[in-house]
Amino acid sequence: xxxxxxxxxxxxxxxxxxxxxxxxxxxxxxxxxxxxxxxxxxxxxxxxxxxxxxxxxxxxxxxxxxxxxxxxxxxxxxxxxxxxxxxxxxxxxxxxx
Length: 97
Fold this sequence. Notes:
The chain is α+β, with helices and mostly antiparallel strands. The chain has helices at residues 3-7, 69-87; strands spanning 23-25, 28-32, 35-37, 40-51, 54-66. The longest helix is centred in the last third of the chain and has 19 residues, at 69-87.
């Protein structure tokens, strides 16, 4: 990708914003997917679960920012656990949480 493409947001994904490996939690698959923004990383992730033979997912984005990707991944996974604990199976009835 060329310099101008990077400057103006063209093409490809940023490895810093790539999804983490899934973490299993109480029958759910949690994936941290922090978003790189202005040198920081926003808390975001995906919560997945198989329902009636079909993989369902809910995505979330929070306002929390972190100086490092590792901190954002850790916080995103904790936030995903909290969402699962609070909302349970009902969260899959919505597209975004």
